[in-house]
Design brief:
about 100 residues; mainly alpha; two-stranded antiparallel ribbon; 3 helices; about 40% helix; elongated
């Protein structure tokens, strides 16, 4: 896909970028090369390729999902300024 100077100006406007008029041909060439590469990658047959979470098939070490601390709810609520029915009461900030 080949971009011309008008396309580059539209893209720059949409991206809110200010570019010099002298740089527009270089931008057009580089953006066209990127779009050509995307077209080549899109043409590759990936039907039989399974998705991968990581290119190196690395696995993440996970710890077991187990409780490691005891419940200290009552202890924390003893030090709270106001508690009612197990809930912390806070001052109203929105009327």
């Amino acid at each position: 896909m080949s971009l011309d100077s008008d396309d580059v100006k539209k893209i720059a406007n949409l991206a809110r970028l200010q570019i010099d008029e002298a740089d527009i041909p270089d931008y057009a060439k580089n953006l066209s090369n990127i779009l050509d590469l995307v077209e080549q990658m899109d043409a590759a047959d990936t039907d039989k390729v399974s998705p991968m979470a990581h290119p190196l098939d690395a696995v993440q070490r996970l710890r077991p999902d187990a409780v490691t601390e005891e419940n200290q709810r009552e202890h924390f609520q003893e030090h709270a300024p106001k508690v009612e029915d197990g809930l912390y009461l806070v001052p109203q900030v929105i009327e």
